[in-house]
Amino acid sequence: MDAKSRIADVPISGKSKKRSTGIIGLNLLLDGGYPEGTIIMLYGTPTSGLDVAAHQFWRVEGEEGTYLMNDGEVETGMIDATDQHPEMYLNQMVGGRIVVDSLSIVVNKYGIEEALKFLRMTRDEVKKRGANMLFVVYSGIHTPMEMTRMMRAADIVIELTSHTSQNDVERLICVHKNKDNAVPSRMIPFNIVESGIEASTTSRVV
After folding, report:
1. What residue segments make up the domains of the chain, in order of their start?
2. Which H, E and C letters describe the chain, residue by residue?
3. For the chain, what percent of residues have pLDDT higher than 90?
4. Of 97, 128, 147, 165, which is most buried with the most CB atoms under 10 A?
């Protein structure tokens, strides 16, 4: 079965619709969520909450999605992509919410050119079908040029940061790129709780 028939169940329309990020505060920051047909780069340190944010996007109730896991524990419903070349990912992508966790592993195993080739192929399909693909990248392990090229390939770039000050940990979500839309001038604080990421709905100006 080809990729066009696998990324399915997402209606096509000329109207730009938004798909929930799974995080209320981030939805507000992005004026409703991710525009359908876009690719999102989510990056930060391994302890910043990347996996939680990716999981919340994938698990929004009422919509089918695909989670390709090549970098951690494969949970129920995820696809084990540990030993798969990224060219094999495309035919397994079903629904409107697609996650690749992580693109860092693809870059380290197969090189930046293969990772970018995969993103180009995926971009065409998610745009045609009105789906969204979110890929996870770890900061601090790629060269500046690799990071730049991945950011350029994404429609939306979001960073999760955490800073420790004395006895407090400050966690922030920052949108650095939002193609064809205004880039928010604020960051939103968030906490990681048992149910996932809880972001503030009243973000501070920075």
Report:
1. 3-8+36-205
2. CCHHHHCCCCCCCCCCCEECCCCHHHHHHCCCCEECCCEEEEEECCCCCHHHHHHHHHCCCCCCEEEEECCCCCCCCCEECCCCCHHHCHHHCCCCEEEEECHHHHHHHHCHHHHHHHHHHHHHHHHHHCCEEEEEEECCCCCHHHHHHHHHHCCEEEEEEEEEECCEEEEEEEEEEECCCCCCCEEEEEEEECCEEEECCCCEEC
3. 81
4. 97
Q: How far is CA 185 from CA 22, 69, 116, 176, 177, in A?
A: 21, 32, 28, 9, 11
Check residue 202 and give its pLDDT: 64
Query: Tokens 């001038």 appear where?
Result: 185
Question: What does pTM read for this prediction?
Answer: 0.90
CA pair distance 5, 1, nearest whole angstrom: 7
Cα(190)–Cα(49) distance, integer angstroms? 10
